[in-house]
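Issue: copy button drops trailing tokens. Both records pasted manually instead:
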Amino acid sequence: MSDVTAASLATHGFLRRMPAGQLAQLAPCASLVVVPRGRRLFEDGGYARRFWLIRSGSVVLDLHIPGQGMAVIDTLGMGDVLGWSWLFPPHVWAFGAVAVQPVEAFELDGRAVLARCDADPALGYELTRRFLGVVAGRLQATRMRLLDRYAPYNALA
């Protein structure tokens, strides 16, 4: 894909302290991309085949709510991971994503990464463990947003 190195990948918080050999397996799957403000990276329901490690800028996760339009689900920025649907069947995006500031990121080919994970279960375990940490954190953040939104109404009941 590009000249991304294991050493450059190691600078991203998501991959920090990953063994050098595993980073070397990921480097050929990665490219450094710049996404302009306003560009949509993916749509809800689309086929998920890549993910991004954000180095700078910000991305909004959104979802179309019938009768209400687009709702912002979350905002991701430097150090965050964008996309995990490529890892879990059926490999379909659950949200959409759009750059709200210019973004520089490592973009990784999910199919190539999955092939390397199949060939090296230790790499697969390490990535799965890291992605599950991201998923758990996002679920907790969503829980807090829901409590902020609905708890005052329940207190009046």
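Record 2 (pasted manually too):
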Amino acid sequence: MREKGIKARVAEEAAKLIYYNLAADYKRAKEEACRHLGVKVFPSNFEVAEELDRLADEVEGKSRKCLNIRLRKEGLSLMRHLKDFSPRLIGGVWRGTARKGSDIDITVYLHSIKSILSFIGERYRISKAEYSYKTTGGKTERYFHIYISLPSGDEAEVVVRDLRERSEKSRCEIYGDYVTGLTIEQLQKVLEGDPTEKFIPKR
């Protein structure tokens, strides 16, 4: 079998593992898919993401578009509450690739974690708050995550970053482009125009 065909099979298998929560991340999903298929050909994260998006459409059908719209509307409502902290919608809800079980990811920028914990706690139920660590290129960064249970039953994750990082750009580990996200104003325009618009670079 040609390499392209093998890579496509691995990407499809890895996507299934991620969709059905049988793998924690793309790296583990690809490794497990290779073991299962008895090959050592790794597709890119982008290729797996394409298969994951296709699978989610196949399984969830038209309800997936409704889900993306609903999560974007909820994201906008939450961002309006957080407007003083320069919120940006990121993750699958920004991309337009949210699927069943997806949460709403929002980044905020400020100096004091204590202030936003108090602010959010007065308005929403915080299910968990903790630091996470990420090492890229030998550099380890620490971010504070606040997990929120929304009245609708959906979940949101607010990532707190230092105000000095607001102008910095980071590369997406899945699609390879910059994670720009959407501001309140940009998200409002999307919902008024094409509420299911996808923000995915061309491969």
